[in-house]
Amino acid sequence: MSKARRKASRKTASFKIEKKSQKVMAFKPRLSLSSSIIAQCRKMARDITQPVQDLIGNRTTVAIERTTLRLLGVEGCITQADGHPMPYVNVVVDQVRRHGLLSHGVLKTVCHVMAARNQSLDDVVSGIAKGEIDLSGITPEDLRVPKDMIRDMQKHATVVVKNLIEKGRNKDRSKNRKVWGNRDPLRYVIVATGNIHEDVTQAVSAAKNGADIIAVIRSTAQSLLDYVPDGLTTMGFGGTYATQANFRLMRKALHETSAEIGRYIHLTNYSSGLCMPEIAAMAALEDLDMLLNDAMYGILFRDINMKRTFIDQYFSRLICSVNSIFIQTGEDNYLTTADAYDSAHHVLASQFVNESFALRAKISPTRMCLGHAFEMDPKIEDGFLYEVAQAQMIRQIFPTSPIKYMPPTKHKQGDFFWSNLYDGMFNVCGQMTGQTIQLLGMATESLHNPMMHDRYWSLKNANYVFNNTRHLGEEIVWKKGGRVEKRAQEVLSHTHAMLRKVKKQGLMESISRGWFADVKRAPDGGRGLEGVCEKDFTYFNPVWDALELAAKVKASAKVKL
Amino acid sequence: MNANHMIAAYGDLTDDGFMQLNFTLPIPCDDVAREAAREMAAKMGLKNIQVATMESVTPTHTFFVVVGACEHRVDLSKIKVPKLEFKPMKIDAIDALIQKEIGRKLKVIGCNTGADAHTVGIDAIMNMKGYSGDYGLERYKMLDAKNLGSQVSNEDLVAMIQKEKPDVVLISKIITQRDIHLKDLQDFMTLVKSAGLHEKRLMIVGGPRITNKEAVALGYDAGFSTGATASVVASYFVQEWIKRGWK
């Protein structure tokens, strides 16, 4: 940000963040784990993410530029030659990129045209999208934005960001909305019919049977779409498209259900894939509570280019930070490719890295739902003890983060009687180790997407176990030097060694060697690299500036834990 | 098998036909619902029906567990299943067999096609570590196995086959909502046949909802479902390769 603009945005942006005493329950450590090793791990994670953050700092992506336009209120789609609707923001950013102007920020070009033609933002955007305004002939040297227009845009951006803060604050004030300090882990279930109207029916049913958090799984290909589909959708596969209209419909239904049953129902979706920041913006606008948002998931599991992912995750997390969205990291996925026992330290190492990236985007630890999973081969002797050890260890290492615990999936094979028992053991483990969010297992995992009664008996299972073992954790003192404690110490020490190795090699090189989750990805491989662009020193994006400023102010106003 | 090849479900006694089932009906939980569930079970051929549990899932949906004795019998003599003929072998024996009978490495590529992002199935078969103690194909000395991962488009896979010329192609399908897996598989086979790539090549499908019968009907050589580990799949395709006299 240039000096002049920094000054200007300081002047226009006056974010007041009220201090809110959020009750955070810090867990009393029970396993003997070296606090100096833990501190060293955090320090190494900071060193690991620093060079990546430097890379993020001077780059933008097509997704970020599209998000910027969306936040400024750009809506609408155009029907393409093949009959598919394409959002205006995509067409405009694509045009700007094709004419070699993206490094200055999409707004620079848009403002330039606004000034030249004396037209509004909406007119210019739709004009470019419809092909009425031609950008050819405009060179980077031509781009001129009058000072008063810069100021207007900055004001506009400040209003937008203030609105995001206000919406976030309203969510925090919502009656009964509480992630921390619940007597049981929050019961998290997914709906995935592919049809948003059916999803609503299923979600409301789950909520009434005890679910606290509803995740609408996305259609299986959406993470690789470089645009966000529009409108209410009914034809997803393995899930339902994330669209702003779908978000709105589900949010409304769950608010009504919350009011009816007197228990707050959280809504979550996926800020991942090629539209990571756009989904974050839509979620913020439609009052979602949480988002799946992982710094490395897209790289490892969707083969999205790592630079693209790192840059996009930062911007998306700025939005989450400002809008009080809880982020959920996806380390549980590591255990579907790597072995849950042998590679437990991949999970913990990644949690440290995710935590560090999130802190750089000013997300409070109290809003980081760090993920892990109960995925060990059930044939392992004493496997339950090791699962307990890891769950307890993670609980202790991140005492103020709402830990998200994922159920067994990999070793389920269709015998749902057995799977129901397996999920019961998982629920015991979650309750006794004080996990904050329990994603409930589905007994019919590996057969089909969860059906209404699958979710029903899964909730029945959790309701029984959570109530019946409510204070089990408080009664347990782990044996000094016993199997559980030793296992936790072992995973922590492996994590320490792994982070040391990653720090030495650098994060990108480590990923390309397959050190995380046994998946290898090259720095210039994967999808979406063409959408990454180095910023020119005159790069103009007042939304980004305002988000960063607001996130910083917000972080400094946080209550001490 | 009894004399007339007719079999019934077995609960406690031969031919008692005993079964348990569960389902949801989109109606409120009341006496009408109980009777509706009973009738549903009766239409499925159950006698001595007991509605074991009837619980309200929503004000308009009711969950049932129903038990009863199914009157239907199945005639085994009329069942035709295209059965894969092969002898299950272990990794070392398979490697030795390829060495002896084929004398070169067999090239295998595997992936999950279409929009399906699930790698759990293909990973279990391909990756070094394998699944449930059964090593994956990458571990076989006489196989050159390559896992392309998930979300490989049919077109990309065809291009890959043209480039790599694999002997065996493994396709995993996990997502089956609205039978998308069948459409993907069908489309792929059309592409492969029009490109003339199906000659002297084994095409195999796997997934929880895949049956051999279905796979064969779609033009594939074989289909494997849940529980088939790498050594099972490899035993099949190596023996099939030899049986066809291919080199």
Brief summary:
The complex is a heterodimer of chains A (561) and B (247). By secondary structure, chain A is α/β, with parallel strands linked by helices. Chain A has 21 helices and 13 strands.
Chain-wise SSE layout:
The complex is a heterodimer of chains A (561) and B (247).
Chain A: H1 3-12, H2 35-57, E1 59-61, H3 62-71, E2 77-79, E3 85-87, H4 88-98, H5 106-117, H6 121-129, H7 147-173, E4 186-191, H8 196-208, E5 213-216, H9 244-261, E6 266-270, H10 276-285, E7 290-292, H11 297-302, H12 306-322, E8 326-328, H13 334-337, H14 344-360, E9 368-369, E10 371-373, H15 383-397, E11 404-406, H16 416-432, E12 437-439, H17 452-468, H18 472-475, H19 483-505, H20 507-512, E13 532-534, H21 542-556
Parallel strand pairs in A: 4-5, 4-12, 5-6, 6-7, 7-8, 8-9, 10-11, 11-12
Antiparallel strand pairs in A: 1-13, 2-3
Helix pairs in contact in A: 2-12, 2-14, 2-19, 3-4, 3-10, 4-6, 5-6, 7-21, 8-9, 10-12, 12-21, 14-19, 15-16, 15-19, 16-17
Chain B: E1 6-7, E2 18-25, H1 31-43, E3 46-58, E4 61-70, E5 74-75, H2 91-101, E6 106-112, H3 120-126, E7 143-147, H4 154-164, E8 168-172, H5 180-194, E9 202-206, H6 212-217, E10 222-224, H7 230-243
Parallel strand pairs in B: 6-7, 6-8, 8-9, 9-10
Antiparallel strand pairs in B: 1-5, 2-4, 3-4
Q: What does this 3D model show about the protein?
A:
The complex is a heterodimer of chains A (561) and B (247). Chain A is an alpha/beta fold and 561 residues long. Chain A has 21 helices and 13 strands. In chain A, the strands form 3 sheets. Chain A has a 9-stranded parallel β-sheet. Chain A is globular and about 75 Å long. About 3% of the residues of chain A have low confidence. Chain B is elongated, with a radius of gyration of 23 Å. In chain B, 35% of the residues are buried. In chain B, the strands form 3 sheets. Chain B has a 5-stranded parallel β-sheet. In chain B, strands 2-4-3 form a 3-stranded antiparallel β-sheet, covered by helices on one side. A two-stranded antiparallel sheet of chain B has the order 1-5. Chain B is α/β, with parallel strands linked by helices and 247 residues long. In chain B, helix 2 packs parallel to helix 7. Chains A and B meet through helix 8 and helix 17 of A and strand 2 and strand 3 of B.
